[in-house]
Structure formats: structure tokens, C-alpha cells
Amino acid sequence: METPILDVQDLRVHYRGAPQPAVQDVSFALGRERLGIVGESGSGKSTVGRALLKLLPTAEITATRMQFGETDLQAATEKQMLDIRGNRMSMILQDPKFSLNPIRRCGEQIAEAYLTHFRCSKREAKERALAMLEAVQIRDPHLVYDRYPHEVSGGMGQRIMIAMMLLAEPRLVIADEPTSALDVTVRLEVLKILDDLVREKGIGLIMISHDLNLVRNFCDRVLIMYAGRVVETLNAAELDRAQHPYTRGLLAAQPRIGGNRQPLPVLDRRPEWSQPMETSA
Q1: What H or E segment, with its residue span, contains residue 132?
Q2: What is the pLDDT of residues 224-267, one digit of tens each?
């Protein structure tokens, strides 16, 4: 078996002043695959992504193992993390409106990301930025390069964010709800871009999402999180065979075309649900 890109064991995140950890006992390994992390708001899935990049200054992050390639992330200094973030490990955030600098042109922000990690001229950085804009299927890269964030659509803004995060060809990409603000057509196009990168570049992808249908059809494996813990892990194609009552409740709460017109069931949460169960993946 090939060495995983990322190996996490017993990850625990405790925010300063909070009565209990936001995330605890989270363990998983990631290879060259698409791994989905699913759960309701507050389940801890985004916290896991930010903890991997050590972007939680008000939290204590501990783990038995948090290995990214040859780097021990838990022991990594801030200087080492500055080299990792955006270079070897990138995070695509949910809404480009809040991620892009509104007073700088889009292309300048992409080129800056390249200049941060590579010694090169501004001209070379611009050429790389234009090439990446073309790679994410933007028809007129030169036009978009000179536009401000408010002058582009939501779908184009998300592609700009993807271009920025993938410019340095990272080994691992964490995508936190990257398609939630997009319409269906643009969503499919963005997912295809990410899928091609996994297949052609051999990167590892963590897809954080609320959308069970998305992870079922796009991901290879799925982690189900509840109350800060991974309660079930299974192959994405077998999501409908989930056994944990929380996962079953999420599936039952999905509206279905042609289904009955009765109110959707509401989860009757129980304390014992936070205990993980044996899974097939």
C-alpha cells in the first residue's frame, strides 16, 4: 500500500474558553483520492480542515499523529507552515466574496500567491496566473485578470479562488463548501475541474460539504461527523447503506422529487450517537 499523503490520528481541537473540545478523536488517512467530510453545521468538519493548516489561533490542537508527507504538522513551526500553506497544502473557501481582496485586481492576487512561494519576476508570475485562469476554463483570462472581485460573477469568482489555490500545484487541497454559492451548471463545471486535478495531478482532495448527493456522486469515501467526532466512514457509493442512526437521519431528511408530501423527519438526537461504529471503508 502506498504511503498516504495525510495521516491523522486522534485529532483534538479545543477552543480557548470552551467547555468541551470542538473536535475530538478524529482519525483518517488520505491518499490520492476524493474524501468527503459531511455533517450538520457545528459538527466540526470545517474545524478539521483549518486545524490541518493550523489556522486556529484561539484553539489548542493536539493529535497522536498529524503527518503530511514527511512533515509532522503538529511539530511544525509557523515558519514551516507559511511554506506549506498555499504551496503544498491549499484551502478553497466557501464564498469568494469574502476571500478575495475587494480593492485589488483578481489577477494581481493570483500572481501574488505565486510570488509568495517562488522566486521569479512579476512578469513570470503574471504569465503563470494567466495560464491557471485558462486552466480553470475562464474564456478570456486577460480580461478577468484586470477585473476587481465585484466585477465577476460568483462562479467566476470561485474559479479565480481555485486558480489561486492550485497555482503552486499542492499535494493536498481542502475544499470547504466550494460550490454552495453556485448554480447547478457552474457547480458541475467546478467539480469537473477538481476531479481532473485529482486524476491528472494525483493530488489528495478533502471535500467538506452539507450536500449528501454531492459527496455520494463525487467523492470516493465519506466521513460522517457528529458532535465533533467521526461516527461513520464508508465508501461514497455505499452511502445509502449507512448504519449509524445519525447518518440514516441525514439521509431521511433529504427532500426527494416524487416523494410524499409529508413533513420531513427531524433528527431526534441522542448522546450515544457520538460513539463511532465499525464501517466498511
Answers
A1: helix 122-135
A2: 999 999 999 999 999 999 999 999 888 888 777 776 777 777 77
Determine contact, residues 238/227, Cβ cutoff 8 Å.
Answer: no
User: Interior CA angle at 34 toward 91 and 269, to 5°?
Assistant: 85
The pLDDT of residue 1 is: 47
Q: Compute and round to an integer the Cα radius of gyration of the chain.
A: 19
pTM: 0.88
Q: What is the DSSP code string of 147-191? A: S-GGGS-HHHHHHHHHHHHHTT--SEEEEESTTTTS-HHHHHHHH
Taking the CA atoms of residue 98, residue 73, residue 21 and residue 41 in that order, the dihedral angle to the nearest 10 degrees is 30
Contact 9, 36 (CB under 8 A): no
Taking CA 99 as the corner, what is the angle to CA 96 and CA 101, rounded to the nearest 5 degrees?
105
Query: Residue 82 is placed in which grid cell?
Result: 507559511
Coil, strand, or helix at residue 227? coil
Tell which residue, 226, 223, 154, has the closest CA to residue 190. 154
- CA–CA separation, 270 and 213 (whole Å): 25
